[in-house]
Amino acid sequence: MSNPDHNPPVWDAFVEPVVARCQAKLGQPEGWRNPNGYPDGLALCIVDAIWSLGANYDAHVVPVLDAYREIRRAAGGNPNTDGTPELIDAIASCGGGTGFADAVRNHQRTSARKTAPLKAEAVDQAAGALNAEAITTADAFRAAVADDATKVAHVWRSVPGQRSSDIGWRYLLLLSGADEVKPDRMVSAFLRDCGVPALPTRDAVALVRSAARRLEVPARVLDHAIWLYQRAL
Fold it and tell me: Which of 122, 177, 206, 217 has the most crowded CB, counting CB atoms within 10 A?
């Protein structure tokens, strides 16, 4: 009789189909790119991680990132190395969250509710919450995660739009340089086309990680290859 404690997880049966589809659709792994992220810029990590949820990346997120860079360069700053103090000051210079939304020309909210906070306000709250924990730079963020990831994740999930899902948290880790998977609609669609049923976030991540090991690439590289493929459809 099999021991239920040693049965493979549900997602394990789909590793082969996922690997096969990756090989058929994504080209040679040697040509896959390692996503740059923002290893020196915690501010850009925060803005990207919050604004990307439920949004078309090219149409909505890229313009926001570009607008933030313009704001900081106009003020004599370097957006590529900004941390939480610089992000907080930039938002304050616009008059707060609503003014920041005006400045980056995007008033998307953190959920479909009409009364949900603006993503601009969520960015302000996230920067403030991390700053209060002395997490002021990308290096400080990585060090804090290495020391106590659960604590930092709890701080992040206190932000509107980040409470019910860890997609934003995983994406924040990925953007800061971690070997992470963002199990968003792009990854979900790719897995669905592999015949994979709807899976909890943790299982979807484990499946992509397992496929990445089989393909001998970092999980973040496979995640990005899937994202690029799905974006082009």
Answer: 122
